[in-house]
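Cross-check.
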Amino acid sequence: MDYSDVSTIAAWITEQGLKGASEAELMTGFCSACRNAGLPLDRGLALMDTLHPVHEGRAFRWDSVEKIETEFEYGPTSSGEAAASWQSSAFYHLWSRNEREIRRRIGFGDPIEFTMLDKIAEAGHTDFVAMVHRFSEAGTIGEMDCFFSHFATKHPEGFSDHDLAILRKLVPVLGLAIKCIGLGRIARTIAEVYLGEDAARQVMEGKISRGKSERISAALWFSDLLNYTKISDSVPPEEIIPLLNDYSEAVITAIHESGGNVLKLIGDGVLAIFKGEVRAETCHAALSAESLLRKKLGTLNAARAADGRATTDVYIGLHIGDVFYGNIGSQDRLDFTVIGPAVNEVSRIASMCRSVDLNLLISSDFAMAIPEEQRAALACVGRYALRGVQRAQELYTLDNARLNV
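Predicted model, tokenized:
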């Protein structure tokens, strides 16, 4: 491999990075191109921390012979076996000692002291090099502060000085491309976590102008926890956040698994929508989410009760109507959400649950949108005037929709 190949491979990495190729595609293409040009690569791995509520980072692998998982996500490395594995790795050695590169000629008597190095040696590799490329403070996001990579060869003589010089020139280009793709992934993750999947998609597509919105018809969901204030006053302070997380997990996953989009978390309250052109279908999705939530709550409450922790119920209001969906706020602080009278109505309907001792109330508009043959499962609760809503309306529920603690 000569230096003219360096320019060709660097140009390819740049082009693929600009096109938005995945990190795994970049890693696979890079290693294959280097090998085809004469660099004796047989194994490569790259990893970088990210900003994600669950995963600490992502890793990307390549092997010249074996069929392997080309990418995977890893969890926190701060405790347990994961911490022990991380602290015995070549990457930790570099990071903790502020070094840039470490090499082990494992086929020629060098020590095999790092995690996975024994398996790399057993697979017939003779030489191993690990690198770290650190980011400056301005280029760091969360724990994403450097790019780690390692490479191994089975060549009888290991890596030559020329081979290592080539890697030192090309790996920073690979790291920059992977970092750029990773930043885009982080942006999408943050948007989805804090805005919801559908709102995040629209924001990432460029719909961020203040006042830009669309009128849509949607089934609306508003839910709250029963007796949350009373529970939060009676349990130890350190139990409040776990309680909220447990019940929020049940509510949010039920909504998402049924095709809905959570738009707001308001303390213990959840505002969600089910979009669609056919009203009967959006209502069916909302009712499916309610049914799924009841199953999740049964499992959750049983587990919490067994641990001697507080349990509660979720009361839900369901409505359907036209709303404006888009950006509302100031020039420097926007919220992508829904507004309109129907949003106010669904929150008032949910708050009526406590008064009538039911965990589900359905508006008359929602009830009328359900196919006629399915309305037999609904029971009219009565006609109620809702606070802040001009017209009184009949409310409905399903059988067995009683509040449980």
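The chain has two domains: 3-194, 207-398. Residues 378 and 398 are 5 Å apart (CA to CA). Passed to J.P. for a second look.
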